[in-house]
Each structure stands twice: as structure tokens, then as C-alpha cells.
Design a protein that fits this description.
The protein is α/β, with parallel strands linked by helices and 339 residues long. It folds into two domains: 163 residues, Bacterial extracellular solute-binding protein, family 7 (D-Maltodextrin-Binding Protein, domain 2, 3-Layer(aba) Sandwich), CATH 3.40.190; 137 residues, 3-Layer(aba) Sandwich (D-Maltodextrin-Binding Protein, domain 2), CATH 3.40.190.170. The strands form three sheets. Strands 7-6-8-5-9-11 form a six-stranded mixed sheet. Strands 3-10-4 form a three-stranded antiparallel sheet. Helix 2 links the parallel strand 1 and strand 2. Helix 2 runs antiparallel to helix 11. The N and C termini lie far apart (71 Å).
């Protein structure tokens, strides 16, 4: 073999080695929502951009749809079938207790503020409960305040008693029980057909669902309680094994620039934008109506909210943390965020 041939062969090997060393690592994201949902178009898209920017393109993402049902997303990550997943904690009753502190009705502030507060309280007081054991929590969020969207007219709080209503779980189920709602549990992607078929008369959801799940078509009546009836808690989780396989400098950059409060803030902001779009669509739909709870109904619900709050604080305390302190920190952090 000539010296030139040897040189070219050595150069090719060196280039190949360098390319392999800096080749992009693909992280798969499991998605159970419609591809047009803001979680996909807003959160997953921005998360991908944030991860790529923080790692100089060394981490890319790929979304995989329909790998498992919404309640099975955590098991999916534990089994190694995907690297990142989006959890709604209410879909697995009893598995998550601490996350319900973020769902209590009565918090002031939008989804961005409550999502940041959710992360801060988790990081300071709740993570040692290890409710996400086996996976890495990379962000927490709450959607905007939940309201009642119905196919039948709802003018006052009393009209909710006996109403067949899709409830997602978590604190929405606690509130629903106090309101006398007949709870029906189906995952969010099934809401349209559940209402359209008459299997439910209403759904408890934030306003983003007016567009995301086409509630303007099957639930033309929106009953709004100022401050909302509840919030919904979610987490973004990542395979610990996948994270540990990344180069140390990549891990550090993701932890410093993407995961935690930064991603939580981004997700909350996406919810807020989606809620604004939902309100706009409702106001523009000629057959949709918005009823705001009267002052008497607001006072009545305040008593219900207090009862639910005491219940959830007690559950956290029983789980081994100071539930009252966690609640007070949520209130403080939302106020400090200024939203």
C-alpha cells in the first residue's frame, strides 16, 4: 500500500471517528395527543429547539405517536420504548399525591406562573417523595384554570348537580364530587366523541379545549367560575438510562439551560396562549354562550374550594411532607412570579 493510500485511509478513519464522537443523539418523545394539539406544536417543538440549542445540535428529537395509552406513558419510559413522555397525573389515581397541591382551586395567576411555582415547590419540598421513581422529571406544569363546558345549558352552580361530566382525575374529581357531578373518566383525546355520542353532557377542562378538542362544536355552553374550578398537573419525564448515556457536558448543559424551571415556564406559557385562542374561538362562535358564575355561586364555591384544599393538604401531610407549608409556598411563588 502506497504512502498516499495509507494517508487517505488514516484521514478517513480520523474523520469518521470525529463524526461519530459528535454525532447527534436522537431522543424519542412519546405523544398521545392529536398532532395539532399545543402540547405537540408548542411544547414539544420548543423543547426540541431548547435541547438542540443547549447542546449545539448534539441532541435532536423525534416524536412518536400512539405508542401507548395516556395512563401507560410512565411504564413506556421505564420499558425503554421511548425517551421522553408527557404525563397527566390524574390518569393514575393513587400513584401521585404531591402533584395535587398544584391543582387546588383558588390560586391566583396564569398557567405560566403556576407552572413555575409547581417546579419550585417540587424541587424544594416534594421530590424526596420520589413519586416518579425510576424516571427523571425534567419539567412540571399546570394547565390554565378548568371550567365546565356543556352540551346542555348551565346557568348556575346548582345546575351541575347530577350532570354527567368527563373528569380527568386528580383534584378535578375531588371538586366534581363536591359539586354533585356524575364523573365519567376518559382520556382527553376521547372527549369529543364522548360528548357527541351523549355519553357525557359536559367536560371539565381549561379553555384551550375549545379549540384543541373542538368543544365549540359539541359543548357550546361555557360556565366560568372566576379563578377556575381546579388546575391540572402534568410532568415531562425522561428515561434516566437515556439521560445517563449522554456525554457529561451535554447532561450539564441540559440541566442548566433546559430542564427544570426553564422548560416548566415554557410549557405554562403555551397553555396560556392556547387558553386565549379558546376564548377567542368561543366568542366568535355564533351558537356558543359564556355564563359567568354569580357572586352567590362564587361564594358557595369558595366554601367547596376550602374543603377540597383542606383534604389535599391532609393527603400530602399523610404522605410525609408538610402539606400546609407546600400550599403556602405555592401561593407565595405564584405571587412572586407576578402573573
Amino acid at each position: 500500500m502506497s504512502k498516499l493510500t495509507n494517508f487517505l485511509a488514516s484521514t478517513a478513519l480520523a474523520v469518521t471517528a470525529a463524526t461519530s464522537a459528535f454525532a447527534a443523539e436522537t431522543v424519542t418523545i412519546s405523544n398521545w395527543l392529536p398532532p395539532s394539539h399545543p402540547v405537540v406544536t408548542g411544547m414539544f417543538t420548543q423543547l426540541s429547539e431548547m435541547m438542540a440549542e443547549a447542546t449545539n445540535g448534539e441532541v435532536t428529537t423525534e416524536i412518536k405517536n400512539g405508542l401507548a395509552s395516556p395512563p401507560a406513558q410512565m411504564d413506556l419510559i421505564l420499558d425503554g420504548a421511548a425517551d421522553i413522555a408527557f404525563l397527566f397525573h390524574g390518569y393514575t389515581p393513587g400513584r401521585f399525591v404531591s402533584t395535587k397541591i398544584a391543582e387546588i382551586p383558588g390560586y391566583e395567576g396564569n398557567a405560566e406562573a403556576s407552572s413555575v411555582a409547581h417546579w419550585r415547590v417540587h424541587d424544594a419540598m416534594l421530590k424526596d417523595l420520589n413519586e416518579h421513581r425510576g424516571v427523571k422529571v425534567i419539567a412540571l406544569t399546570t394547565h390554565g384554570v378548568g371550567q365546565i363546558h356543556s352540551s346542555t345549558e348551565v346557568k348556575e352552580l346548582a345546575d351541575l348537580n347530577g350532570l354527567k361530566t368527563r373528569l380527568g382525575g386528580g383534584v378535578s374529581a375531588d371538586v366534581g364530587a363536591e359539586l354533585g357531578l356524575v364523573g365519567i373518566q376518559v382520556p382527553a383525546p376521547k372527549v369529543y366523541e364522548t360528548l357527541d355520542s351523549g355519553a357525557a353532557d359536559a367536560v371539565a377542562m381549561p379553555l384551550e379545549g375549545r379549540v384543541s378538542f373542538k368543544l365549540t362544536e359539541v359543548a357550546p355552553n361555557l360556565y366560568e367560575m372566576p379563578g377556575g374550578l381546579y388546575r391540572g398537573s402534568f410532568s415531562l419525564i425522561m428515561s434516566q438510562e437515556k439521560f445517563d448515556s449522554l456525554p457529561a457536558e451535554v447532561q450539564t448543559s441540559l440541566e442548566s439551560n433546559v430542564f427544570g424551571e426553564a422548560a416548566s415556564r415554557m410549557m405554562g406559557a403555551v397553555w396560556d396562549t392556547a387558553d386565549e385562542a379558546g376564548r377567542k374561538a368561543t366568542m366568535e362562535a355564533s351558537d356558543n354562550t359564556i355564563v359567568t358564575a354569580s357572586e352567590d355561586d362564587q361564594a358557595a364555591f369558595a366554601s367547596i374550594a376550602e374543603k377540597v384544599r383542606v383534604k389535599i393538604i391532609g393527603e400530602l401531610t399523610e404522605a410525609g411532607v408538610d402539606g400546609q407549608a407546600a400550599y403556602e409556598m405555592m401561593v407565595k411563588e405564584i405571587a412572586a412570579y407576578g402573573m
